[in-house]
Amino acid sequence: MTSSDKNRSDKHFEQRARKLWHEAAQHIDPATAGRLRAARRKALEATQARTHHTVRWLIPTGAFAAIALATMMVWQPLQQRHATTSMPVSSVTDSTADLDNDLPPDADKTDPNLYQNLDFYGWLASSNTDASSQRTNQ
């Protein structure tokens, strides 16, 4: 069976089911029709109430989020400004220099002449480790 044959049979089945459903809906007794209408109204009211409840909370939630964002934007620059004005410049540079001692200097911030004698620095590092290992062995 090809896909076009399957589509035709699906459409035929759908049309036949729809026709039977409409015929059954025309011949339903009044008591059942009333119960179906009441159930439909109840389902629609529940859906509308849920939507109304959600919309009722969206406005205060959005306002709270906007206030929180504005507070954070105002508070952060004030905090940074107070931090920079209260600490002297020398203490700020000293604390950053202490943190950066363990890391090698950036290539763009160092003297290019340092990179000319890399063999010397390698020899110096190896001789320092040899001397320190000899001291620990004694």
The gist of it:
Residues 80-96 have a biased composition (Polar residues). With 138 residues, the protein is mainly alpha-helical.
Pick out its properties.
single chain, 138 residues, mainly alpha, 4 helices, 82% helix, elongated
Bin the helical content.
Answer: over 70%
Number of helical elements: 4
Instruction: Using the alpha-carbon principal axes, give the shape.
Output: elongated
* Euclidean distance between termini CA atoms: 92 Å
Q: Which residues sit in consecutive blocks of at least 5 with pLDDT less than 50?
A: none
Can you offer a commentary on this structure?
The chain is mainly alpha-helical. It is built from four helices and no strands. The N and C termini lie far apart (92 Å). Residues 80-113 are annotated as: Disordered. Keywords: Membrane, Transmembrane, Transmembrane helix.
